[in-house]
Amino acid sequence: MTQPSSTASACATRWEMWLSKVLSVICFTAVCAALDPEDVTASFIREVDTTIPMVTTTPYEPPVPTVERLSFWLDVFPSEKVELGCNVDGSSDWTFTWYRNAEKLQDIDPNVSASGSKLTITATTTTYSESYSCKGHHKTRPDVTTETSAPVQLTVYPNPPKPTLTRSSKFNTMFPGESVTFTCKVDASSGWSYLWYHNNTEIQTSDPNFRVDINHSKSGQYHCKAKRGNSPFFTEVSEATTLQVSEPPVPTVERLSSWLDVFPSEKVELGCNVDGSSDWTFTWYRNAEKLQDIDPNVSASGSKLTVTATTTTYSGSYSCKGHHKTRPDVTTETSAPVQLTVYPNPPKPTLTRSSTFNMMFPGESVTFTCKVDASSGWSYLWYHNNTEIQTSDPNFRVDINHSKSGQYHCKAKRGNSPFFTEVSEATTLQVSDPPKPFLKLLSPWMDVFENETVEFSCGVESDDWMITWYRNEKEVQSEEDPNVETMDSSLNITSVTQACQGRYSCKAELYLRKVISEFSNTADLRVYGNTPKPTASKGPTLNPMYVGETVTFTCKVIVSSGWEYQWYGNGVQTTTGETISIPLSLSNQGKYWCLAYRGDTTQTEFSDKIQQDVLDIPVPSLKLITPWLDVFPTESVKLSCEMNDNSDWIYKWSKDGNEVQADTFASFDSKGATLSISSASAAHTGHYTCKGQLGQRSVSSRFSSTCNLTVYDEKPTVLLQQDPEYNVMFPGESVSFSCHINVSTGWEYLFYQDRKPLNASGNKYPISSVDITHLGSYKCEAKRGSGQNYFTIVSEAIGLEVEENKPKPSMTQQPDVDKVYTGESVSFECTVEASSGWVYHWLKDGTPLPINNRTFSITDANLSNSGNYSCMATRDKTYNTQHSERRSLRVSEIPVPSLKRITPWLDVFPTEGVKLSCGIDGSPDWTYTWFRNGQLVKKDEVLSFGSDAATLSISSASASQRGQYSCSAQLKSRSVSSNSSSETTLEVYDTKPRVTLMQNPKHNVMHTGDAVTFSCHVNVSSGWEYLWHKDNRPLSEYNHTISSVVTTNTSYQCQVKRGTNTAFLSDRSQAVGLEVKERPKANIILLTGWSEVFSTDSLVLQCEMPKSQDLWNYTWFKEGRQINHLISEKHTVTPQNNTEQSLYTCQGIRSGRPSYSKFSESFTTKNLLLKRRVLLSISGLIFFGIIAVLLGCIVLRVFRKPDDGDDKPEETELFLTMAQLKERDDAPCPMVQYITDAELNYAPKEGEENGTICSETPLPITSHEDQAVTIESSGTTENNGGLVSFKQ
To answer: One GO MF term, please (predicted)?
Structure first.
């Protein structure tokens, strides 16, 4: 690449000239554009300089001393000491005077001494119970004395206290392992420590609570006392309490089951008992190990343990231990164990028999014995030929007959859910008939009935003989007749039948030998086919009979003999005997029958049943035939006496215990069942009863209930009443007249209106809807009786007045206002002038209220009470008056006044004015009261109030006006007061505010284009207006902005003011000077020459900082946008990244100050690729055109004859030679002109004057010097340490 030509240098010179011409315009424009008013918080920012001390000159009142308690308590007992201290803010510059009950203490009291700030009192008597205070006197300023301190009250008790000793457990006896806590308490004063004693020996503890872990050594008496103070004061000794200690009882295990040796699946129940008490829970152990709850075969419920012995593992030694339910630390010792044995397998019983003969004869017996060797409690089950026999004894006796032969076996069981053993081995029983000689009837009779037993004996001299029996000379075969039994020498017919009838005899056969004896003597046996039916009878034959009578029953059988009789009553076996007598009671009522029997097997049928009914002797019922029992002279009375049954009763009457006899006025019917009194008189007054007598039997009833007959001395009077008792009635109302008589009953009532009879039913005459026709005078009377009526005296008259118009109530309200406030009381009163008896009803917004009084009061009004109120009245729930006029009531919350500041600020300086307002919605109905720090504010020289005290004005503020201000409102017309408003704090400073001027950034030297901010800070308050001074000259505007500094050095100051009428001005701030230097500017040069365009597609630009020795980095911009990846001093432009004409600028950045330069001038490029192709095409055309022209010239020279030379005109040269071009100043350079569009970028004349040479001219980029001015903005951003964002 060649060095720039002189033309390029000339162009650069011209650029510098133009740049210098617009430098001032660029600087000014950049500075102005950089300052965005929205990005600047303020031209000058106010900040409070807290480092400036404030001087306070407020005068103070002398401090108020406080009395401090140096002792631990202020309520003491005789001889105790109390120390008090007087303190004035911890200062030692004061002496003190002490007071008791506002009177100065005297030095002559030996029990009171003062030393410095301390007062010591020895409280010997209760006279020292007083109020103590102190006053301070400054040691070096004798005129300074404080106010008297707040008093401290000292209390002296007359006697030492006696502590109260209590214990946590109230049990009389405690057990080892428990604990009890004793509490010693002194009710008077505090600060006590306690001394404890056990059996008069001191215990080393001082706590008010003393815990004792119980053992036998802790039994005895306990007491306590208390002390306090260094020279201790002791209380009296408490009352003693006794602690008794004994061992817990030992439980016993009881067997609840019948046995303790069991087999698999059997259950065993054990019980644990502690002296029969239910205050214990229990833990069970097997072989001294605690039983687990997870075992399903072991369950414990209360004191009972149930064990299901499924395996032998449940064998063992069982014991229990008790735990007290309410005393968790009490546990008994383990009980004595009980041994449980579980056998591994069910037992098998052993079966034995009493006889070992293989053959048995009828009449013999054998006893089988079933035995289980293990355990006990067995009941046995017997089986004959596998059929169960109904017995449970271990021994089973069999009376031999042929049916009893066969196989026998047994097994055993026990328990409610029975456990069964295995089955025993079987044994066989064989039976045969032996012969019997010497026949003898052993039964009582020879005439028998079927199923009876007959027994014969056949005597044999030796036991070796066997007997053979015969009936009707035929051998009796016991095998054929199961009812015939033979045993040794006897014949037993167990159940006689018709076949058994005949002549009996026997033969004997030698034992173990077949020798038969002769026939024995005979016996004739007669057998009846059916058993007879007994006959039952009774006497007397009456039915029913009454309680107390006696009945006799007889039972008789006429066939055979030897009968015994059994009686039954209502299906229940009663007694035996042929004849029985029964004194009757109600329980004897029912059916009776009998049967006859003899022996063990024969009994007759039941006799016919005889019904015997038994009744209570009835009590007669005395009834009124006349409906009433209180009568008047000459009235008739009739009474009846009757029984509930239909027997023939005869009745007798009694009055006051004397029998009533028939006379002129009293009479009876045929049986005395009716008593009639034709004309009653006073002699008939009394208590009447009756009783019944049964004709031919000694049966008498009790007397009936009493009937009291009363006979009055004179005629009765009646009373007429009106309901309701209103003197005036209105149409549509209802009224009822009732007629009353105060004695007797059965009256019929008669009513009259103005002496005309009225149609009435009962004792009332109702009028359901009154009208004018009911006006008049009303009376009544009463009558009774059916034959001859009996009339009373006529009642007094009652007049009825009827008013035609419906009344309308009037309603009043107190207070008589439309609007009230919450908490106020409001009362309404409703009045109906006409008549009486009104019930008043109140309505709110048309809805009834649950109030029925004449007055309706709202004692504590709230918002829900707002509405329209009216009232009406009713009588008897049927008649309504008209509604009253409505009264509207509006209830509002008592408004809270709003305290507002009229002065915009509440922290002011001396002599400033302050104005506050207090108001409630702009209403003129209120007056206001002002408060400062809770104290009432009063008017003075500088403080005044507006109308109704709605405003508070302070004309000249001072320190005494500091504080919390609030206000409250009072209603002018009523005693309604609002709550206080929210508080507003007024602060009054002691001195003027200090103003501080600050510069940002704090650089000593600024550069052109930099932004600088001056902040004016006031250390207190608000509402300030800021005044600026430049070089001691005030600026016209309140806000002064320096958006871009220039090189002029200046000095700045500020001050503040506020207020409209009388402005308050602060002092000026300190002066701040500003030094400004020029900011350097970047420059772009083109490193690529125009002649290199044939060999390259790109242009190389370079950014530099002229006249700068510092190290700079560079940022490139294309069309005003940063080329992000480029920060070098060179930038290459190619057709790919520059397809159109573009505007390029650059800027220098670095880490020092200034951190960035001004932007360079702008440079413009064109489409290099297109222009390069066009340039090559034109160059080719020119090249070949020159060749063609040269060839043409040669051809012309060859083939054309030359003219005569002298007269030819001289040919004009179309093209200049290179030498000529160099000599010419105005020779254009067409290549350069085409590439750079020189006509568009007008070349400065300075360049022409510098003699530009076409061959050395660099490819220029037009600079639009007047197109853009760079302006710094306060919103400049940083990228990689440099400021890279600018406005264009």
So the answer is: transmembrane signaling receptor activity
Q: What is the pLDDT of residues 1022-1072, one digit of tens each?
A: 888 888 888 888 886 555 667 766 667 778 889 888 877 777 788 888 888
Alpha-carbon gap, residue 213 to 995, rounded angstroms:
79
Closest of 492, 558, 490 to residue 528, by C-alpha: 558
Closest CA to 449 of 542, 534, 527: 527
Residues 969, 970, 971, 972: what is their CA dihedral angle, to the nearest 10 degrees?
-120
Q: Burial level of 884, CB count in 10 A (0-12/13-18/19+)?
A: buried
CA angle 452, 455, 457 (to 5 degrees): 175
Give the Cα separation of 1004 and 1000 in Å (integer): 11
Tell me the β-bridge partners of 700. 693
Contact 993, 909 (CB under 8 A): yes
Left (φ > 0), alpha (ψ -120 to 50) or beta: where does 574 sit?
Answer: alpha
Cis amide prior to 176 (ω within 30 degrees): no
Distance (Å, whole) CA 1228 – CA 989: 85
Are 1236 and 1260 contacting, i.e. CB atoms less than 8 angstroms apart? Answer: yes
Contact between 1063 and 51 (Cβ < 8 Å): no
DSSP string across 385-428: TTEEES---SEEEEE--GGG-EEEEEEEEETTTTEE-PPPPPEE
* Coil, strand or helix at 216: helix
Per-residue pLDDT tens digits for 798-833: 988 888 888 889 999 888 888 899 888 999 999 988
* Distance between CA atoms of residues 183 and 168, nearest Å: 8
**Percent of the chain as helix, strand, coil, to the nearest 5:** 10, 40, 50
SS3 assignment, position 102: coil
Residues 6+ apart with CB under 8 A from 1186: none
| Long-range contact pairs involving 1055-1060 (C-beta distance under 8 Å, separation at least 24) | 1055/995, 1055/1016, 1055/1026, 1055/1027, 1055/1029, 1056/46, 1056/993, 1056/995, 1056/1016, 1056/1018, 1056/1024, 1056/1025, 1056/1026, 1056/1027, 1057/1024, 1057/1025, 1057/1027, 1058/905, 1058/1021, 1058/1023, 1058/1024, 1058/1025, 1059/912, 1059/913
* Tokens 């383990």 belong to residue: 334
Strands 649-655, 1278-1279: pairing is unpaired
Measuring CA to CA, which residue among 91, 106, 83 is closest to residue 154? 83
| Phi, psi dihedrals of residue 738, rounded to the nearest 5° | -125, 140
Full strand arrangement of the beta sheet holding 350-353? 350-353, 365-371, 395-399
Cβ-based neighbours of 1085, under 8 Å, separated by 6 or more: 12, 1101, 1102, 1104
Which of left, alpha, beta for 383 (phi over 0: left; psi -120 to 50: alpha)? beta
Taken as a whole, the chain contains a residue count of 1288
How many Å apart are CA 232 and CA 86, to the nearest integer? Answer: 26
Rg from Cα positions in the chain: 72
**1166 pLDDT higher than 50:** yes
- Nearest-angstrom CA–CA distance, 951 and 899: 9
Q: What is the DSSP string of 811-836?
A: EEEES--SEEETT--EEEEEE--SSS
Pick the more confident residue, 1179 or 374: 374
**780, two tokens:** 């009544």
pTM, to two decimals: 0.32
H-helix or E-strand containing 752?
Answer: strand 748-753
For residue 445, the cross-strand partners are none
Cβ of 917: how many Cβ atoms within 10 Å? 17
Q: Of 1013, 923, 908, which is closest to residue 953 (Cα–Cα)?
A: 908
Cross-strand bridge partners of residue 594: 567
In sequence order, the 6+-apart residues with CB closer than 8 A to the CB of 635 are 679, 680, 785, 790
Residue 326 has pLDDT above 60, yes or no: yes
